[in-house]
Specification:
Largest sheet: 8 strands, antiparallel
Order of helices and strands: HEEHEHHEEEEEHH
Shape: globular
C-alpha cells in the first residue's frame, strides 16, 4: 500500500513527460487555420544554431504562391534600438538572416517601410547567389517591438514581388500575429 502513491506519481510523471515530448518533437505541421496561411506548410528550421534561438520555417508551393517560397521567421530579443527601431536599410542587411541562406547577397533597390502585427520596420529585396550556382531572389524583413526585433526572410527562385505579397499576407495572419507577439514576450 505504501508504494501506491509512488506508482501513481511515476505514472503521472511519465504521462507528463510524454506529452512534453509529443509537443517538443512533433514533426512539421501544416498551417490550416485561416485562408492566409492555408497553403503554407511548416518545415523544420534548416539552419545551424547560432546566437539566437531557432525560429519557424514554412514552405509554400508554386501553385499557391506563384513560385516555391520558403519563409524563415524568428525573434531577436533585445537586439533593436529601443528609440528608433529599424532605422535604415543597412540594419535590414545586418539582421535579416540573409547570410544564413547565402553569404553572397546583394540588395536590388532601396528598402521600404513595412508594418506587420502592430510592429513597424523595413523590408528590402535581394539577389542571392546560392552555393550550388543557382540564383534566388529574397525579401528581408525586420520589424521592431520595443527593444526587440522580429526578422523574416522569404527566398525562392521566383520574383520578389510575388514572394513579398505571399510572405506579408502570411505574416499578417491572425495565427502568425499571435505567435509573433508570444515569441516577443507577449508584451
Amino acid at each position: 500500500m505504501r508504494s501506491l502513491p509512488m506508482i501513481v506519481g511515476a505514472a503521472l510523471a511519465i504521462g507528463a513527460l510524454s506529452g512534453v515530448a509529443a509537443v517538443q518533437y512533433a514533426g512539421p505541421r501544416e498551417a490550416r487555420q485561416s485562408p492566409e496561411i492555408a497553403h503554407w506548410q511548416e518545415i523544420a528550421w534548416p539552419f545551424p544554431r547560432d546566437g539566437w534561438p531557432a525560429g519557424r520555417a514554412f514552405r509554400c508551393d508554386a501553385a499557391s504562391c506563384g513560385a516555391e517560397v520558403e519563409l524563415y521567421v524568428r525573434p531577436k530579443i533585445g537586439f533593436c534600438n529601443c528609440d528608433s527601431g529599424v532605422a535604415d536599410d543597412d540594419e535590414v542587411d545586418r539582421v535579416a538572416d540573409l547570410d544564413l541562406i547565402s553569404e553572397r547577397f546583394a540588395p536590388l533597390a532601396a528598402g521600404k517601410p513595412v508594418r506587420i502585427a502592430d510592429m513597424s520596420g523595413r523590408l528590402r529585396d535581394y539577389d542571392l547567389d546560392m552555393s550550388d550556382g543557382a540564383h534566388h531572389a529574397a525579401v528581408g524583413i525586420a520589424v521592431s517591438h520595443r527593444c526587440d526585433l522580429l526578422v523574416a526572410v522569404a527566398q525562392g527562385a521566383g520574383g520578389t514581388g510575388e514572394m513579398q505579397r505571399a510572405a506579408l499576407d502570411f505574416l499578417a495572419s491572425h495565427e502568425m500575429h499571435h505567435w509573433m507577439m508570444a515569441a516577443l514576450g507577449g508584451r
